[in-house]
Structure formats: structure tokens, C-alpha cells
């Protein structure tokens, strides 16, 4: 397999909250008008008018990545404060907006709303998406096949939307979309592209730029995009997701095999991760039984230790994991 690129970038989604009522506020346009793109970060609107996104450029150092994330949060917090709002980094809102949240002015957003109806009418879920550079799409598909068993653990590590007894209510809401969850195994880029095209033809995806898998090939960038994590509560949590995701990609690129796992067991593992986070049972996708979630996290760190050592990030990851558990 070709050498994977060294770059990693993060997209963070945030909720805008009215400071008086605590409810999410449909004022993304007002906040985005007060921030400017920089060499480090670009700011974007989301489907919901209660959300904004900050996307870093490609970074080779997690220290640089952390600095970009901090600057973006500071800029958005200041812009939100100027219009009487707070910035909330959480997978789902504590008090959702009572207004219509999806703008019909954007043609693509209108298409998404028309397609998914009630599933997106009040969908305010926020994630932390990690992009890791790959040299080509064939390599990207082989990486996807490798990381499948680890996606539930990345979700459990990130769980930051407690509600209704679940550690990650965001994942429960996301599971209502067609094709959500761990991606299937693909033989190569042609089969991957055919699967996406088939779902578009069937009407379950609005276009080829959309899919709901927890890891996918970016439709625009030469990256594998990890989409398992809830919005990160802190910059350090986002950095941890980025470091582990990049280490998984590099482990795959160095030819380390990940034993095959069943699709239905992966689905069970995603459910357990959303239900309990790190505080209860997880599903071991290889042994096909319940184990402590922290045991799988330890196994993940062990699995990517050589990749982390190569980049000098092992001590940092151990420290950040210790803070989470």
C-alpha cells in the first residue's frame, strides 16, 4: 500500500444558544458574518441555521492543529457573544429550537429537507469530523476496510450528547438516516463509487457528495473522513480524535491487517457505544461479546502505538486518554 499523507484536519460543528433561554437560536448567518476565514481555518454554514462549522486546513503537527482549533473557537465565541449568543460544543442541544431550523433558500438544503422530511426538520446533531490524507482512492478504500472495527470505540471515546439514557443521543438520531453506521467492506474504489451511485439512484442519498457512514472517502478532498465522533467538548478531545484517526490510517498504510468482522456485530457495537460511551459495556467486534469499553480503548491505543511512536505522539495520546477515563 502506498505511503499515506501526513496531513490531518478537523471539522467542528457547534450549536448557537440563546443566553437567556438556553435554546438553540437560528442565527448562524449573523455569527458567520462576524468571522473571517484565515490560513488556518474556514467557517461554514450547516443544514440547520442553529449550527456553524469551523474547518481547519491540513496540518502535519497536532500542535498546529490544536492551535487552529483554539483560534477558531475563540473567533466563533466572540462573534456569537456579539449577537447575544453562546457557542455550545455538544453532540445534541439541551434545549432545541422551537422554530424551523432548515433554510429553504439554499437549493441543496431544500433538496435534503424534501428528501428526508421529519428526520431533518429538527436535526441539530453536531460532530467532530477528522480528515486524514491518503495518496489515492484505492488506498482510501483499503483504509476504510481496516478501520471499520475501531469506529465504535472512537464514538464511545467521544460521547458528548447524553439524553434519554444514552451517552451519545446524536448517534441515535443519525441512525435514522439510510446507510448510517459502519461502512461495508469494499473491494476497491470502483465498488465504493458504485455503492454510492446506487444509493443515489435509489433515492436514499441526494447526491454523490452525501453518505452517512461513520467513515468515508471525502467527496472533495484526497482524504479518509472519520465521522464517528460527537462534537468535542474541548480542543484536547478533538486533538485526541485526530491523533488516533491518523494513527489508524498510518497503521493501515503500513500493511497491518485488521481481522474481518461481521456487519451485524459492528452495528451492535455502534449501538453499545452510543448507549454507554466509555462508562459501560462495549461489543468486541472480533470476539462477538460484551467487554468493558475501556478495554477496547486500551486495545485501540495498543494497535496504533507504533504509528504514534513514529510521530512522537504516544505520550500525548496516553495523557489525553487518561483525562477521558
From TrEMBL:
Catalytic activity annotation: L-cysteine + L-glutamate + ATP = gamma-L-glutamyl-L-cysteine + ADP + phosphate + H(+)
Gene3D superfamilies: 3.30.590.20
Entry EC no(s): 6.3.2.2
Enzyme class: ligase
GO MF, one example: ligase activity
Database matches in Pfam families: GCS2
Key words, A-Z: ATP-binding, Ligase, Nucleotide-binding
Function: ATP-dependent carboxylate-amine ligase which exhibits weak glutamate--cysteine ligase activity.
Family that this chain belongs to: Belongs to the glutamate--cysteine ligase type 2 family. YbdK subfamily.
UniProt protein name: Putative glutamate--cysteine ligase 2
Species the sequence originates in: Lentzea rhizosphaerae
